[in-house]
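ugh ok fine here u go
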Amino acid sequence: MPVPRTSSKIVDRTGRRLLPIGSEDFTEVVTEHVYVDKTSLICDLLDSSYKVTLLCRPRRFGKSLAMRMLQCFFETPVEGAKPPIPSRKAIFESLSIWRAGERYRAQQGGHPVIFLSLGSAGGRTWDICRAGIMGQMSDEYARHAYLLDGSLLPEEEVRFRRVIAGTLAPGEAESSLSWLSLLLLRHHGSGTVILIDEYDHPVSAGHLSGYRDEVIGFMRSWLTAALKATTSLYRAYLTGVQRVGRESVFSGLNNVVVNTAMDTRFTEGFGFTREEAGALARYMGLPQGKLSEMHDWYDGYCFGGTAVYNPWSILNYLDQGGVAQPYWGNTSDNAIVHRLFQQADARLADDLRTLASGRRLERPLNLATVFSELDLLGGGASPSALWSQLYLAGYVTTDDIAFPNDDMMPRRLRLPNREVAWLYRREFTERTQRVIGDLDLLLRLRQALVSGDEAALARSLDELLTKSPSYFDLVSENSYHMLLLGLVCDLPGYRFPLSNRESGDGRPDIVLIPELEHQNSLAAIVIEVKDARGTLPGPEGLATAEGGLDLLAKRALAQARGRRYGADLPGRGLLFWGVAFRGKVASCKCRRMS
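structure:
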């Protein structure tokens, strides 16, 4: 059973309250910075019977630091190594792992370790990617070059030096990991611990750059030789964002146990629990009144039923003295998810807008990523594969964690927090800018909307319609509705726009609500959209004649006011907009209500 934890442990051996922003050196973090004690993860991993464990969590959730922690804990000291591999026993003596019992302490320093980080292995071609992987192997062979001091046969020494030099014979790259593991067992007399951080990065790079089959083929052979039924292996731990399907990288392995955010084991090993985040905030002197803000911005993930904060964002938020802004979104490198947003078809884009507006969606999740299912992105790709990409990357979360391997079960998906909502808005803004191609025009349009300038908004829309969308794409009122929705999705000071949501006595087309901190300075905005080609005979039919488009915009405005749209909205007053379109011409009418 996992080691029980009754309280969070904040470790600060210097007393200087220095937060470990960006550091993945476990020794440095524990000895020189404020550290949230996560060493109970070691106990949980040792208590499991798993020989090979794949741990999938979003980026910046502490995976790399956890892997360095495992290296420091397991690795056997070697004085003759260059540089020396020191004893790290003293690092752990005041941490929770040391209080857990002798059977855990006995494992400290008891195994040779192979540590590989594949986060930099990628590039535009397979040759570049392969060189990056083998560069990591070369460095690790060099770190264990003490094996050359009498431990190897002459022909083994020649081969060992070839790996260090990068001049491998055919087949030696595929066996480089398993062979080093065997040599370490022979030298130390104890099984090897293999740690591979960001194992999925080369596969993701291959998928994006067109060499997916080559990298999967190589990694399948490379990993299978080292991890399957080998007596040299004590334990292996791999981390990544994506859970690559068994039929690809792990097709030759049946001993890999995959742990994702939906599983109930190892839930507290990554991210900060609410208890930990609160204890860290108090230690760093955050005012009590700021805790709710910290919660709104960075909490909300559900890992195996446990509420989890984004640790990278919490550390930066506290380091900046409690300034709430996006931190994770500015560093989270996930090109596959970015491409998903930018190439989403109309249905997927509508679903993403639903999430961004604060609502939930029910969708199944298939967490075993098969990259071939994403090749038809936006045009037939597996819906569960698309949503699973977002889930594994941390762009959505769910509280429905029962039967995690059931890829047919609908699960209620939601955005975790305001930081992720901001990320959605940024993605939609980039999507809009790509279509418009004119940032200055977009800024002028938004300024006219917020200020209530009818003429300026009409001019901006006319210019936009002339430059950008094809006339044949604007075929209905809904087309114009979606166009406007995209234009205002990242309006400064406002939440993500609501579309066709109940307000007053009806469902306005678009509603913009100021963020809480701006509700005393910004008005709420209601937009009603009309298409002249969709009008019925009668007075509105004048939209096809001179001046008729203005009449249609006035009638849209009257509808918004008459049905009391926005009567329940917070803000400094209310801006009603009636916007009417005929082809590539717009008429805009506005009324401000206090």
